[in-house]
Amino acid sequence: MYDPDKRKLLSALCHGAIFFSTAFVSVGIPIAMLFISNDPVVQQNAKESINFHFNVWIYGIIITALIWITLGLLFPLAGIGYLLHWGLTIWALASVLTNPDQPFRYPFIFRVL
After folding, report:
1. Backbone angles phi, psi at 42, to 5 degrees
2. Domain range for residue 76?
3. Which of 29, 68, 99, 101 is deepest in the core (most CB within 10 A)?
């Protein structure tokens, strides 16, 4: 039996780390949880968070390139990207805190792990 409060905290840390994604070291938190925790739900949340980090970075590079190519005409796309990034993260945090026994799965992302 796994401690539900510990599961909530570690899962929330995994998903909440994306708020610091511009630091690139934020992915270290879910990577550490993947190796430190023996809880299968926390490990699944860590993998999903790592995948989400990669997606945010890839889409960020694409959006930045499009903004540069169009000389800033597609700048509103950056705002939409941030809304999706933050909105999905808040959804993940709410999900793991209200239902700690179920790993959260982000919709519409590519999964490497």
Report:
1. -65, -40
2. 4-98
3. 29
pTM over 0.90: yes
> How many folded domains does the chain comprise?
1
Residue 39 corresponds to which tokens in the numbers above?
Answer: 């809880």
Inside any domain, residue 50 = yes
Alpha carbons 62 and 81: distance in angstroms, whole number: 11
Residue 1 pLDDT: 80
Q: Report the alpha-carbon distance of residue 14 to residue 34 in Å, rounded.
A: 9
Cα 107 from Cα 113, distance rounded (Å): 15
Q: What is the DSSP string of 34-56?
A: HHH---HHHHHHHHHHHHHHHHH
- Encode pLDDT of 15-64 as tens digits: 999 988 777 789 999 999 999 999 999 999 999 999 999 999 999 999 99
- How is residue 55 written in tokens? 């997606």
Q: For the chain, what percentages of helix, strand and coil (3-state, to nearest 5) are there?
A: 75, 0, 25
